[in-house]
Amino acid sequence: MNTHLKGVLMVLSATAMWGLVGILVQYLISQKQFTPEWLVNTRLLASGLILLIATYFFYDELYNEVRHLKK
C-alpha cells in the first residue's frame, strides 16, 4: 500500500471515529446516566495508556534515553 493511500485511509478512519464518539457520548449521558466528568477522565486515561504502550513498542529509543537519564 502506498503512503498516500495509507494517509487517506487513516484520515477517513479518524474522521469516522471522531463523529461516532460524539454520538456514543450523547447516548451514554442521556440513556445510561454516565457523568461527563467520568467519560472525560476515562477517555484521557485510556488514550494516555494507548500512547504510552505505542511509544514503548514503536519508539523504543525514547525509553532508552529516559532510562539512561535516570542512571
What can be said about this structure in brief?
This protein has 71 residues and is an all-alpha fold.
Estimated share of beta-strand residues: under 5%
Helical residues, percent: over 70%
Give the overall average pLDDT: 90
Low-confidence stretches: none
Query: What structural class do the secondary elements suggest?
Result: mainly alpha
User: What's the story with the biggest beta sheet?
Assistant: none
Helices and strands, in order, run as HHH
Please characterize this protein's 3D structure:
The chain has 71 residues and is mainly alpha-helical. Helices cover 89% and strands 0% of the residues. The longest helix is centred in the first third of the chain and has 29 residues. The mean pLDDT is 90.
Please give the structural blueprint.
Blueprint: H1 3-31, H2 36-58, H3 60-70
Brief descriptors of the model:
71 residues, 0% strand
